[in-house]
Every structure is written in C-alpha cells, then in structure tokens.
Amino acid sequence: MNYKPFDPVHRILMGPGPSNIDPRVMKSMSKNLIGHLDPEFIKLMNDIKGLLRYAFKTNNELTFPLSAPGSAGMETCFVNLVEPGDKIIVCINGVFGGRMKENIERCGGYPIVVEDKWGSPVDINKVETALRHNPDAKILAFVHAETSTGVCSDAKELSNLAKSNNCLTIMDSVTSLAGIPIHLDDWKIDAVYSGSQKCLSCPPGLSPVSFSEDALKIVKNRKTKVQSWFMDLSLVMQYWQGGSSRAYHHTAPISAMYALYESLRILKEEGLENTWKRHETAHLELKRGIENLGFSFLVDEESRLPQLNAILLPDKIKPYEAEIRSRLLKEYNLEIGAGLGALSGKIWRIGLMGYGASLNNVKTCVNAIKEVI
Amino acid sequence: MNYKPFDPVHRILMGPGPSNIDPRVMKSMSKNLIGHLDPEFIKLMNDIKGLLRYAFKTNNELTFPLSAPGSAGMETCFVNLVEPGDKIIVCINGVFGGRMKENIERCGGYPIVVEDKWGSPVDINKVETALRHNPDAKILAFVHAETSTGVCSDAKELSNLAKSNNCLTIMDSVTSLAGIPIHLDDWKIDAVYSGSQKCLSCPPGLSPVSFSEDALKIVKNRKTKVQSWFMDLSLVMQYWQGGSSRAYHHTAPISAMYALYESLRILKEEGLENTWKRHETAHLELKRGIENLGFSFLVDEESRLPQLNAILLPDKIKPYEAEIRSRLLKEYNLEIGAGLGALSGKIWRIGLMGYGASLNNVKTCVNAIKEVI
Fold this sequence. Notes:
2 copies of one chain form a homodimer. In chain A, 41% of the residues lie in helices and 16% in strands.
C-alpha cells in the first residue's frame, strides 16, 4: 500500500471545535523540540501557568495544561476529588453533564442528578432543593457552557449556592474559556477543566485545569489512592510545581505546549475582555443573518453562548440536514456541527470560537447556508 | 508581566526521549487543521492504523494511537484488562515495571512481583516459577526495553511461557518500537503500548497501542465497568473503528496525528529492518567511542538496547555528573539523560533514537563528553 503525503485542504472550522488557529500558533509547533526537563522548557511551563491564570482569572498555584484532551481533564477533576461513597450533585442539561455522571459512577461516587431540558440552563431552584435534601453532598458539578446545546448556565450563582452549603464545585469550562467571562476566584470555583481546541484556538490535545486550595486539601487528605496513575494530581504536581528541577512524571507534549503558549500570548495581547466582546459581536451578526434565513435558536436569548450557536432545523430541512452539511464541507470547505445525542438531526451547531469568531466567517457561513438550502 | 515569543535553541536530544525529529515531521504539524470527524481525517486515521500495524508487525484490527502520552497507554492496557481481584504477574527490573505494579494495584488487581536487578533482563526461570506457583494468574506484564536501564528482555520467550500457562501478555514497548525488532503477532503479545517520542521521532503526546482478539474478548466480557471513561476501549473503539462515520468520543489531537503519520511514512520508506540496523550501527560506534574514554556499560552486552545506552559513571565523575550534564547542555546544546530512581547519580543514559540514531550524533556526543570530563 502506498501512503501519500497528507495535505489537508483549508477548512473553515465552524463546528463545536476544533476551531481554526492563528498562523502564529501553527508556526510555533514547528519550532525546535527540546526536552521535557530542559531548563528552557521549565521556564515555558511557568509562563504557561501564568497565562492560564490570566485566562481563568485566578491566583490558583495549581493551574496548568493536562497532557491530554478535555475529557481527560474532566476525569482528572473527578478521580482526584471523588472517593468511593461520596455524594455528588451533578447537573445534567446536555451531553457533558451526562459524561460527568459517568465519571462519578466510575469513581465509586453516588450521583444526585439535577436534570434540565437540553437547551435550558441549569435551574438554580432545583439545585437549591437538591442541596437542601442532601446536606452531606461533597461536590456540586456543572457545565458552564454546554457544547452540545449552546446554553450558558449561571456559574456564579451555582457556586454561591454550593459554597453556602459547604460543597466544593467542579466546573466544565471546555467551551467557555476565553469565549465568555470566567472569574474563577471571584466565583469560588474549586476545580475547572477546559480544552485547547475551542476559544483558545489551539490544536486539540491539551486540557487546561485549575484547582483551589480547598480542592488540594481534599486531594491531600484522601483515604484511598487516586484510581488513575496518569491523572493523580499528587504525582502530576511534582512535575508542574516546584523550583528549577522537576520530578519526571510523564513526558509532556512539547510541541503542543509551544502552541498553547503562543495562543495564550495572543489572548493576552488582545485582552481577555476584548476577546469576549469579539465573540459577542460575531454572534450578534450570525444571529441577524441566520434569522433572516428563517432559522431560530434552540436556546433562549438570555442564556445563549455567543461561541456555540445551536440552530433549530425546520421540519423541511431535517431529512436533508446531513446532506446539507456534507455539501457545505465539500463545496464550501465549511464545517458546521451536527446535533449530539437527543438533538441529533434536530439542530446544527455553529461555532464562533477564538480565531474563528470573525465577521468574515459569519458572512461566509450565512451565505453558504443560504445557497445550499 | 511580559511574555516574549518562545524561541527554543537547537538541542541535540540524546537523552531517553524525546528525540530529535525529522524536518518533514516538524513541517507536517503546521498543516491546516481539519475536524476530528472530517472524512479526510477519518481516512488519515485509517492510514495511521495501517502504518502502526506495519511498525508493530501485527494484523490486530485494534491498533491505533491513544490521544495521550505513553504512561496513559500503559494505564489503558491495565484498566481494560485487569478487574478487581485479578492476579497479575509483573516483572520489575527498572522504573517502568514498578509503574506497572502501581497500575495493577490502582485497578484492584493482585500483583505477583518477579524482581530482577536494575540493568539485568527479566529472568525467564523466575517467571516460569511464578507461573507454576500461580496457575490462576491472568496476565504476565513486562517491559521489553527498560528506558531506565537500557536493558532488553526476551519478549518472545516471556510470551511463550505466558501462553503455555494460559496467560495474556501486556508488553511495554515505549522505547523498543522501531528501535529493535518487535513481532507482535509471531510473539503472540496481547496488549502493547508505546510512545511517539522515542524511536518514532515524533513529538511526545501520543501512545500507539495494539490489542489482540483474545485481549478484546476479555474487554467485552468484563464484569465491571472500566474505571476510566477516557481510556475505556469499548468507547474509544467506536471512534477508531467502523466505517466512514465514527462516533464522537473525545477530540483527537489533529496536529499530533499529522506528525505521527509523517513519521510512520518515513519509517516505511526506510524500511523497518533498515531502521533497526541503523540503530545497531550507531550503537556500536558509540560503544567504541565511549569505551575509549574509559566508560563501561551497566548492561551485559547480549541484553543491551542500541537506542538507550546506560553508561556507568566512574567514582571520580559521580560527584560532578549533574554539573557535566549541565555544561553539555549549555555549552554544546547536547542533552543526555540522568539516571532514574536507584540509578540516579550512578549512570548517564545516552539515547540513539529514530532520527537521532546517526553516526554524526555519536561523534558529537563522544567529543563533547571527552572535552568536558
């Protein structure tokens, strides 16, 4: 068999991620490889930690990119903070809340589910009731920005509730980081994970995480060993913290770290607040265009994510939706996302993330959809 | 704080990995990003699977790169094949056998340890005895090429023994893949994991794995759920196997896959056997040079890995060994590896891996050491 050079076409990535990446980030990956214990690399690790603190608005010392995708970031939060028998309140209003529940169960935890309709934000009243009925709950887990539905939940209010009931919080910020405001410290979030391939506009493969002092106390005082060796924070920390000499844990993905560093530099240059504004502006323009074509949104206006637009498909389009997406890809090199799970065949997910959150992309996308439907 | 562009110097990477990478591989990472469910990417995934089968000499359908470093590949093998209470024979003759034991325990397995001196290969007789005394053992786990000591164990013989005792085998091939012969199917290995950053000369971050039909039967007939969601093969398979449409599991590290594909193409072009020979030739030249300087090897000649050379440090050098490595790095841009664990301060580890297994590198390294000591 003949294996030809792989030359991917240029796609406009407007699905739920990965998003297109800045040429500066692309170029950074081809820089000279150095060792994972090289003093120069350790300096880079420190700079990445500093920039991630800026992106999350936190002073948490343990803020770093896990060497695996966002779903491993999720698992890292749960395997370190949940011990067998622990009661965890988990909010499910889409695919990723469901995945959280899977994680809790696989850690031997006991999940108390607060369920909301896909496309609705987490209902604060239901969470309050769940907390009242479960005073022994250890953690409240929720998704800030549900990638499967495009809904934003009120992280600040949820965390407030948790804190006044002596609960820790685990927050999924895979799609929210750098796309909408996150104030980790002000909101008192204890554990958070994200992904490199959404609004940070990096290639997929890394999961920025951050842990509060309260979370680390829990990790330090565990009765049982963390079930995962690879994700055990007490081991990973020895590599990501400390002075100039670090203990080897695993070999970090050097080139991916170059990319993350460059994307975080770009974020800092533009300014976090300006980046949030750019996402909002692109979203409003997409809203105008897509509503003009007769589409509407799955999510109510006040809970919509600018970076992930879930568009309801009219009945006449539903049977052809896969074909239309396929034509957009083939004829326009435009990727938009399908619905996941219960929303498969019922919505499209149009991403406006990071480098891709531009008025140009909006125009291209609206025009292409207009021509194809 | 001012975050400057990161411009790593050019290092000659002759430690235990990462190794230097071919310019073609470096260039490949900067290619256009496409989606993880794009038909073009799914074709690439199939090609990568085909090339990994070539590298492992296997027909195993489930052969793919896990989206995380080698230590996560190790954990994937154990969490999928070990259930609570399972008896596992694990051979420890260095750091990575010890890590295997950690994994077995964290899965609730019961490890039977066969211990050998660091620097010695796994003793076949001891394994035979262990198998005889433990007829209920489910798996024999061993490291083919110990990265911490540079010793090669007889994988074929170990697997033979396991098979005649109805045991599955888990083999660590992180440092062996593409550096020395592996015949996965001939040897009847059931589960294997490797790393991208050693003799494949890719950036770190991916772990090629392969599973036999017998291993998959065990996975399918488990009584308990795999404790890791991210590494659960029954879920990962839905993304890596099947036809043109794949179920989403996690977002694969696209750019890292480009790099792996290109490095595997280079391996195929050179030919696996020629690559093995090149490692051997470079090793013999290093041996000559380093012995001329008065050094000797930790490992007996018949068990030495060409790609990982553990050099015993004379007493007069030991107190200065860290300083010497630091000077090699600063003055010669040459990275060689320190000893790990019990061998810390007692050996150096000189890697000749993949793209870096060249006579030029050997010359540079021997001359630099000669000048500094």
